[in-house]
Amino acid sequence: MKTEIITSDVLIIGGGTSGCYAALTIAEQNPELKVVIAEKANIIRSGCLAAGVNALNAYITEGRKPEDYVDYATKDANGIVRKDLLLSMSQGLNRVTAKLEELGLVILKDENGKYVTRGNRNIKINGENIKPILAEAVKAQKNVKVINHVNITDYITEQDKVTGAYGFDVNEKIAYIFSAKAVLCATGGAAGLYRPNNPGFSRHKMWYPPFNTGAGYAMGILAGAEMTTFEMRFIALRCKDTIAPTGTIAQGVGAKQINSLGEVYETKYGITTEERVYGTVAENQEGRGPCYLHTEGIKEEQGKDLLKAYLNMAPSQTLKWIESGKEPNEQDVEIEGTEPYIVGGHTASGYWIDDARRTTLKGLYAAGDVAGGCPQKYVTGALVEGEIAAETILKDLKQEEEGQQSEGQASKEQLEKLAQAVDQEYESCFAEKNHSLARNRSRKPCRKSWMPTQAGSGRITATMRNSSISRKKKLTSFSH
Question: Which residues contact 77 (CB under 8 A, 6 or more apart)?
Answer without folding.
Answer: 232, 347, 348, 375, 376
